[in-house]
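Q: C-alpha coordinates for this one, please.
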Amino acid sequence: MDNIGASAVPVVLGDGTFWATRLVTDENSGIRVYSEATGLVEYGNVGMSCFMRADGELLYSDTNSPAPFTFIRNHS
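A: Here is the predicted structure, written as C-alpha coordinates:
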Protein backbone atom coordinates (compact mmCIF):
# COMPACT_ATOMS: atom_id res chain seq x y z
CA MET A 1 0.00 0.00 0.00
CA ASP A 2 1.09 3.55 -0.62
CA ASN A 3 2.26 5.73 2.23
CA ILE A 4 -0.21 8.32 3.52
CA GLY A 5 0.50 11.62 1.81
CA ALA A 6 -1.07 14.60 0.08
CA SER A 7 -1.58 12.80 -3.22
CA ALA A 8 -2.09 9.18 -2.09
CA VAL A 9 -4.36 8.19 0.79
CA PRO A 10 -4.72 4.40 1.00
CA VAL A 11 -8.04 2.99 2.16
CA VAL A 12 -8.99 -0.69 2.20
CA LEU A 13 -12.60 -1.82 1.97
CA GLY A 14 -13.46 -5.48 2.32
CA ASP A 15 -15.18 -8.43 3.89
CA GLY A 16 -13.52 -9.15 7.24
CA THR A 17 -14.69 -12.78 7.23
CA PHE A 18 -11.87 -13.50 4.76
CA TRP A 19 -9.18 -12.35 7.25
CA ALA A 20 -7.62 -14.51 9.99
CA THR A 21 -5.60 -13.05 12.86
CA ARG A 22 -3.30 -15.19 14.98
CA LEU A 23 -2.22 -14.01 18.42
CA VAL A 24 1.00 -15.58 19.68
CA THR A 25 1.29 -16.00 23.44
CA ASP A 26 4.44 -17.14 25.21
CA GLU A 27 6.37 -16.31 28.37
CA ASN A 28 7.27 -12.85 26.99
CA SER A 29 3.67 -11.83 26.21
CA GLY A 30 1.67 -9.59 28.49
CA ILE A 31 2.30 -6.65 30.82
CA ARG A 32 5.13 -6.50 33.34
CA VAL A 33 5.57 -3.88 36.03
CA TYR A 34 9.04 -3.06 37.34
CA SER A 35 9.38 -1.21 40.62
CA GLU A 36 12.88 -2.19 41.75
CA ALA A 37 15.00 -0.89 38.86
CA THR A 38 17.62 1.79 39.47
CA GLY A 39 16.08 5.20 40.18
CA LEU A 40 12.44 4.07 40.27
CA VAL A 41 11.82 3.60 44.00
CA GLU A 42 13.69 6.78 44.96
CA TYR A 43 11.30 8.91 42.86
CA GLY A 44 8.10 6.89 43.39
CA ASN A 45 8.02 5.70 39.76
CA VAL A 46 7.41 2.33 38.19
CA GLY A 47 8.46 0.90 34.84
CA MET A 48 6.12 -1.03 32.58
CA SER A 49 6.74 -3.35 29.66
CA CYS A 50 4.01 -4.49 27.22
CA PHE A 51 4.59 -7.10 24.53
CA MET A 52 2.29 -9.01 22.17
CA ARG A 53 2.87 -10.67 18.81
CA ALA A 54 0.20 -11.02 16.13
CA ASP A 55 0.05 -12.18 12.53
CA GLY A 56 -2.65 -12.12 9.88
CA GLU A 57 -3.45 -13.63 6.53
CA LEU A 58 -6.05 -13.26 3.80
CA LEU A 59 -8.12 -16.45 3.50
CA TYR A 60 -8.85 -16.12 -0.19
CA SER A 61 -7.31 -17.93 -3.16
CA ASP A 62 -9.98 -18.02 -5.91
CA THR A 63 -8.54 -16.22 -8.93
CA ASN A 64 -11.74 -16.43 -11.03
CA SER A 65 -13.98 -14.30 -8.80
CA PRO A 66 -13.70 -10.74 -7.52
CA ALA A 67 -11.45 -10.24 -4.51
CA PRO A 68 -13.15 -9.55 -1.15
CA PHE A 69 -10.91 -6.47 -0.63
CA THR A 70 -10.42 -3.35 -2.73
CA PHE A 71 -8.19 -0.26 -2.44
CA ILE A 72 -9.30 3.38 -2.71
CA ARG A 73 -6.61 5.96 -3.36
CA ASN A 74 -6.87 9.73 -3.57
CA HIS A 75 -5.06 10.92 -6.70
CA SER A 76 -4.57 14.57 -7.44
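A few notes: The CA atoms of residues 46 and 53 lie 24 Å apart. The chain has no helices and six strands.
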